[in-house]
Structure formats: C-alpha cells, structure tokens
Amino acid sequence: MNQPIIDVIIPAFNEEDSIGKVIRDIPTIVRHVVVANNGSSDSTKKVAEAAGAIVLDEPQKGYGKACLTAMDYLSKVEEQADIVVFLDGDYSDYPEQLLDLIKPIIDQDNDMVIGSRALGKREGGSMTLPQVFGNWLATTLMRWIYKTNYTDLGPFRAIKWDQLKALGMVDENYGWTIEMQIKAAQAGLKTTEIPVDYRKRIGVSKVSGTVKGVFGAGYKILWTIYKYW
Asked: Where is the Glycosyltransferase 2-like domain (predicted)?
C-alpha cells in the first residue's frame, strides 16, 4: 500500500464554529472529506462546503446513523478508498495526526488503528470524569470478554475500507465506536492503538455535556458489550 486512497468521515451536528478548522487541518493526502450533517440547525453545512468538504444531509439524529450515511455514499464512488478515517467535527482531535494514524496500516498492514486519548496528551478539562471512567470500564470489560487490548473508544480511528464494510456495522448512535472494536476483535482483524492528543472541544458536547447524553452513552456501550458477547 504505497499510495493508498484515503477518505475521511466526519459526523457533525451544530459544529459551525469548529468544522471549518477541522477540515482545513486535514492533511492534503486525503482524497474526500465527507461531512454527514446530522440535522444541524446552524451553518455547519455552509461552513463545511466552503472549506471543501462533501456534505451529506442526514436528518435522523445519531452518531452512528451519520457515519452509516457517509459510508453509503463512499460505497458508491467509482474508485473505492483503501483507508477510511473517522474523526469528530468539534476540533477536539488533531486532524494533522491522521498521518500517524494511518502509518501502522501502510507500514505494518494493520487493519484498524484506534487513536487513544488515554495514551496521548489530554488538555485539562477535555474529558469529563464520566468519559474517563466510561472508557476505562468499557475497555476493561472488552479485555475480559473479548481478549482485546484497547485503552480507549476514541472516535479518531482509521480502518481499511474493505474490512470496515465486511464488519456489517449497524449501530445508529452511541454504540458505534465500541461495535466496531468488538466486531474487529471477533473477525480477527489486526488492530493496534497509537497515542493521539486531545483538546477541549469547541461548543458543548452532545454526549458528555448533558445528563441524558452521559447516561444514554453509558447504557448503550454496556448493552453493546452484552449484545455481541
């Protein structure tokens, strides 16, 4: 895989203040940046298009639903990607670290790489205590049940496109990231993690920023672990 085709998927809901920064920081090696506009009521779509992204409208709310919509679009392009990278639209990830994220796939033939915030440098206040605890609990349970070595459910991740399609992803909301990691383990994919840095997001988190989001995500993550056991 000397010169892989790389596409990026960004689910976005009301990220007008951050989405342009995210897109502009993505390395030029990327072919398509696909933003799944997940029912935004602000100018997310306009800003993303101005920054050069392909914007798809997905009115049904849900992180996973937005990702599935973007995947459906990429499955129909004439020349298929080799690698797909997921990252958030709130500028908490460092898009320029995409080059580090894809390196284990290109150089060591890994199938999937998780960007671990637990292993990287986190800005103070960038992750709430429920987020830190939830990641620890989820990765610990996966280690016990699925014999994995994950340290994070980080949204910033890269995966071979053909392997991603083969996983048969279905979750439409909070269980998306952990579903991918569990199914990758069950499929025997070669996976690894690399440290990625993390900063305070721009705006209010739709998950950790609300009580409903925290409990909803926690319940869905635990349910997903049980569901595929």
From this structure: 8-159
